[in-house]
Write a structure and sequence with these properties.
With 585 residues, the chain is mainly alpha-helical. The chain is built from 24 helices and eight strands.
């Protein structure tokens, strides 16, 4: 129904779009995409991505195109760089809603969309300029379109629509996935759809899609996906083919060249964390799947959703180079499965009501724990003074307590059905929305300019004649986005020493401890300025348990190998306050 779609879109606007430009572009992989898209605009080269004035073969072009288009429409900014990810998050929530509506009912559709829109994994990735969430959207759309178009849906889906339109949509989505991440964009939908098609056609003898519809889907894929790859092969020859298809795909999957090997169970806590704060409700999957098995409903809806999630999970579990964000495509079918299980457990007379109450209480207690940790990490959030952090922690605490109370009241008053159908999920979603907005507009952001922006301003002010500059062990990726390319990136302190011994004037951004080591080794440095820096992008679980500023706050300095002829000797301080950039005499 339109009102349910509007409700999901409203939640998405808060979790995916509100404050999208905060925090600054992080010192992570997102800096590559944000900067490469900017250089694409500046160069006018829409074929070959560049980062720091160097060709970037690592990933296909579609995310760069999308971010560059956002730049062209609204200017270069972190929000524009992240917009493709945020829009993909909205698309995933609407896809989960559409699937649940077709396979279940309207209320399940609303809940599935809300779960997708408020799950931690999607909220976090929608606020990073990375291709992984668009990949998840394209893979999900390709899978969903193929399932409907090939007529391998559950029997409860009703009449089959025209196959050709759905298969063409699946082919276009597969092309998008192929252009945003490479061959995996085809492998993941195929891993889900091929076994389901074989099982359904062999066991249930359903009519298959026409050959013309299949050929149309393949044709759309080929027309959309292959031209850019062909142009790159012509432009760059075997170097591109080998680097991307062999190095970035086969070797990344099968060897430890890019990522250290991780255990087979690595993705289990990743998936559990990605579903937060809804994870406790996963205990309801066992009775739902068990009931389907006991009823011998071969190919039931629950089994299709389970396979939809398990096939990509198994594929990435077998890989050597595991990364947390790779498994994002498993969350939409899990959200639908979770919504259906919650709705079934909340039905009158069900024996699972106690299990549902326990899951709701556990979810509320998790929110309370997050509120406590948010209050505890105040010593690391040195730029936020006053009552900001305690107030946010207090709001989250109230929502956690409200979830627990609503679950307990609803369980005691069994004549009232509204608790689990409305209030408890609404409170869980509200807690997630509050945490998303607070985390990305306050906790991980700065009240004024971010440290990397202040350091970039110092670099730009200090480069009297465009002198070379480098960065070492800090701001290694995102400084270029704010200060501009090209920037050298030495791989050792010895290389930094050689860089600063050049006969011409050069600058370097590095940690205070590294600068002190260079000076202790006899190198004379002109200290220009400094910022205090907390790398929020690399905070670990250990940091949340022991938020010690001495361990995680770093002093970052800008130095030169000789003074500037025009540099002022008067100390100045950026309006950001005590922890802003300061120029030294």
């Amino acid at each position: 129904m339109p009102r349910h779609t509007a409700a999901i879109a409203g939640v998405c606007a808060l979790t995916f779009l509100a404050g999208l430009g905060r925090p600054a572009v992080t010192d992570s992989d997102e800096a590559y995409y944000a900067e490469a898209a900017r250089e694409m605009i500046e160069r006018g080269d829409w074929l070959t991505p560049h980062y720091n004035d160097e060709i970037r073969f690592e990933k296909p072009v579609l995310y760069y195109w999308l971010a560059a288009a956002a730049y062209a429409a609204g200017g270069v900014s972190p929000a524009a760089a992240r917009l493709p990810s945020a829009l993909a998050g909205i698309g995933l929530a609407l896809l989960a809603c559409a699937c649940a509506r077709r396979w279940y009912d309207e209320r399940t559709a609303l809940l599935a969309g809300i779960i997708t829109a408020t799950s931690f994994g999607y909220v976090a990735m929608a606020r990073h300029a990375l291709p992984d969430l668009p990949l998840a959207f394209f893979v999900t759309l390709a899978t969903w379109g193929a399932i409907v178009g090939l007529r391998i849906e559950p029997s409860r889906a009703g009449d089959h629509p025209s196959a050709q339109g759905w298969l063409i949509a699946a082919g276009a989505a597969a092309a998008g996935a192929f252009l945003v991440k490479g061959p995996v964009g085809l492998v993941l939908p195929a891993a889900v759809v091929a076994p389901l098609a074989a099982w359904t056609w062999l066991r249930e003898r359903r009519p298959r899609a026409s050959r013309a519809a299949l050929l149309a889907a393949v044709g759309v894929f080929l027309v959309l996906a292959l031209p850019w790859y062909g142009a790159m092969a012509v432009e760059h020859g075997a170097a591109y083919v080998e680097r991307f298809f062999i190095g970035e795909n086969l070797e990344r999957f099968a060897t430890p060249r890019y990522n250290d090997p991780r255990p087979l169970w690595y993705y289990l806590p990743i998936v559990a964390g990605g579903l937060l704060p809804w994870t406790p409700f996963a205990v309801l999957w066992a009775p739902a799947l068990g009931g389907a098995w006991r009823a011998r409903r071969a190919g039931a809806t629950e089994f299709r959703l389970a396979w939809w999630a398990l096939a990509p999970l198994a594929f990435y579990t077998l890989s050597v180079g595991k990364q947390p964000r790779y498994v994002l495509p498993v969350l939409p079918p899990l959200a639908v499965l979770l919504a259906a299980a919650m709705r079934r457990a909340a039905a009158p007379g069900t024996e699972r009501r106690g299990l549902l109450t326990g899951a709701a209480v556990a979810s509320g207690l998790l929110v309370v724990l997050v509120a406590e940790r948010l209050y505890a990490v105040r010593p690391l959030l040195v730029e936020w003074s006053g009552a900001w952090i305690p107030s946010l922690a207090g709001v989250v605490l109230v929502l956690g307590v409200a979830i627990v109370a609503a679950a307990a009241i609803s369980h005691r008053d069994r004549s009232r059905r509204g608790g689990f159908h409305g209030l408890v999920p609404a409170l869980v979603a509200a807690a997630s929305v509050c945490l998303a907005v607070a985390t990305y507009t306050v906790v991980l952001a700065s009240p004024q300019r971010a440290p990397v922006e202040r350091m970039a301003a110092l670099v730009q002010e200090s480069r009297d004649a465009g002198e070379p500059y480098c960065r070492y062990r800090v701001f290694t990726r995102n400084l270029v986005f704010y200060a501009g390319p090209p920037a050298a990136a030495p791989f050792s302190l010895e290389a930094v020493r050689d860089f600063l011994r050049r006969p011409d004037r050069v600058l370097c951004v590095l940690l205070e401890s590294d600068a002190a080591q260079l000076e202790a080794d006899g190198l004379t440095l002109d200290r220009i300025g400094a910022v205090s820096y907390l790398d929020t992008g690399s905070l670990t679980f250990e940091a949340l348990l022991d938020p010690d500023p001495a361990r995680y706050l770093r002093q970052v300095v800008l130095v030169s190998n000789r003074p500037s002829g025009s540099a002022s000797s008067a100390a100045v301080r950026d309006p950001g306050g005590a922890h802003a950039a300061a120029r030294f005499p």
